[in-house]
Amino acid sequence: MSQYRICPDTGLYFDRAGEGLMKANAVAGVVALLVAGVLALLVGLTRWPAIHYLGASDFYMVLTAHGLNALIFWIIFFEIAILYFASSSLLRCRLATPRWAWLGFILMLIGAIMTNVAIFQGSSSVMMTSYAPMEAAPHFYLGLILFAVGALIGCFVFLGTLVIAKEEHTYEGSIPLVTFGALTACIIAVFTIASGAIILIPSFLWSIDLIGQIDALMYRVIWWGMGHSSQQINVAAQVSVWYAVAAIAFGAKPMSEKVSRTAFLLYILFLQLASAHHILADPGVSSTWKVFNTSYAMYLAVLASLIHGLTVPGSIEVAQRKKGLTNGLFEWLRKAPWGNPVFSGVFLSVVTFGFLGGITGVVMGTEQINLIIHNTFYVPGHFHATVVLGTTLTFMALTYFLIPVLFRREMILPGLAKWQPYLFAGGMTILSLFMMGAGTLGVPRRHWDIGFAQATEMGLKFEFPGSAEMMLGLVGIGSVIAVIGGGLYLVITVGSIVFGKKIEESAGLMQSFGLPLAASCYTSEKPEPVKGPAADLEEHGSAGFEAPGTFVLAMVLLVTFVVYYFINWKYLSSVWPMG
Amino acid sequence: MSEEKEERVPAMQRLLDNYFLLLFLGVTMPTVFYILWGVMEIVSIPIAK
């Protein structure tokens, strides 16, 4: 029997080896977020026309590093921590092959550092996408390959842990819903990493002159199998955390566990096909391929997101109504714990992910109206709403729960922590909205100077309307607010695990980075029946559909979506007159 | 016999409980519909003369 401890506050199970790996991966992710956040400020201040802070070369270098640290390193490190938590802790069993898991972590760490070194040496300012025939330094690709191999090891450790739990009968019936969501993320990750291997290994060989050329279109199609799917890992992981927080903060059960599981199955089958929307403006692949992948198939994944978007707040409403908060449609929401950053972060994430990220994602996935905004500033506006407001904000909220439970420290600055999700979400909402506004006016993404100063010197002249400049200024203001909100998160979380009051005496500095607590904290005896918040996370059940307030909110989302969708078609007809 | 019938696990639940079948489906679907189909279309583009 392996050693474990039970959290006295929540009843959660922590395997001794798994606990260290969760901490190490989460901390590495937070360090990557720190790097990404500093670089985000530089990018934001450069695209703010009145400031235009960085020079062109530095801008593209910084943007490349910002993209990879924010979209890949921060999120995947944190997701590996979630996979270990969702398997080992929620199934109450030992983590499979912890030595392999540490090897995976070390490979990821080396890979992330190697890729960052390649970028900051200045020879790999190729953006996150590194489209061929733009060539990066060999260690740029090698770092990404090592990171991917490490993450793949993490996925197989997760799957191995599921096998152990089944063999050792540590749970009854099916795995908990949160673990099933993590399994969905893991499956998407395996496809993502396989696509990455197919394209990054030849790219590495090309960078050391062992391969003559990489076909640009082939590269784009296969790279997006990795690039977009990596963001679908996030969606599955963040939705799992939504269900987890609903259970932790409210004791909520999903409205229908069967429906929620089926929605995750739709993710497994169809979510990754949305990668094709990056290729919608490319010649060489047929409309049949584009429309099947981005519309028919992707809409089934969108249906799954709509289900989760309904059932997560719906489950909270049902739980609140059971506690007697039954006045009107929204007493359950008014009296929710808005001062608890674990709840507020997740709820803001659900709303902004749905209204900003989800609706615009469907618009971008439609072949015809995609043409209005393809490769404009609208695209980062969309994915800052999905990946940052959706995933990053959710993971931030989860961290506040983990500080006392996993790291065994009290959170410092609790007053500031109450405001942090609002500040971060507010800044990021401003940024996303005005990025999308500027994109609708045609402002390009990844562009250092929309004044086209060098083109003007060559006799070419193009000016964007003044409203585009104003929106870029507002993007800059949004980015500064969001960076302050992100900085607060880093100060609170890092400060807590380093300086926070110890809840467990042996929770020293090194224990915050992965070393186990004192031996006396762990036991090898058979675990007792689960109690406390852990029971709500691990047990099965459905809460029912008595959630009228949530259904009203869902209708508001649907009406907003329909109106916005048709506005885009109307706009398309005006920019693309058919006579 | 009737007890056996009662304990029969529904097909959908058996699918959802079979992690490795889900892994197979989750990798095969995008590999076929996105990667292979897309690559076939690209390689079938005539080479410019």
Your description of this structure?
The complex is a heterodimer of chains A (579) and B (49). Chain A has helices spanning 16-47, 56-89, 98-120, 138-167, 177-207, 216-250, 257-270, 287-322, 331-334, 341-364, 367-373, 378-405, 414-440, 453-457, 466-499, 509-512, 533-538, 548-575; strands spanning 4-6, 13-15. With 579 residues, chain A is mainly α. Chain A has a domain at 19-35 and 74-250. In chain A, strands 1-2 form a two-stranded antiparallel ribbon. In chain A, helix 10 (341-364) packs parallel to helix 13 (414-440). Chain A is globular and about 80 Å long. The mean pLDDT of chain A is 94. Helix content of chain B is 78%, strand content 0%. Chain B contains 3 helices and no strands. Chain B has helices at residues 2-7, 11-17, 19-43. Chain B is rod-shaped and about 70 Å long.
Q: What is the largest interface, and how many residues per chain? A: A-B, 41 and 24 residues
Q: Specify the biggest β-sheet of chain A.
A: 2 strands, antiparallel
Estimate the mean pLDDT confidence of chain A.
94
- Total helix count of chain B? 3
Low-confidence stretches of chain A: none
Quaternary organisation of the protein chains: heterodimer
What structural class do the secondary elements of chain A suggest?
mainly alpha
Task: Give the termini separation of chain A.
Answer: 76 Å
3D shape of chain A:
globular
Secondary structural class of chain B:
mainly alpha
Total strands of chain A: 2
Give a short overview.
Chain A has 18 helices and two strands. Chain A has 579 residues and is mainly α. The termini of chain A are far apart.
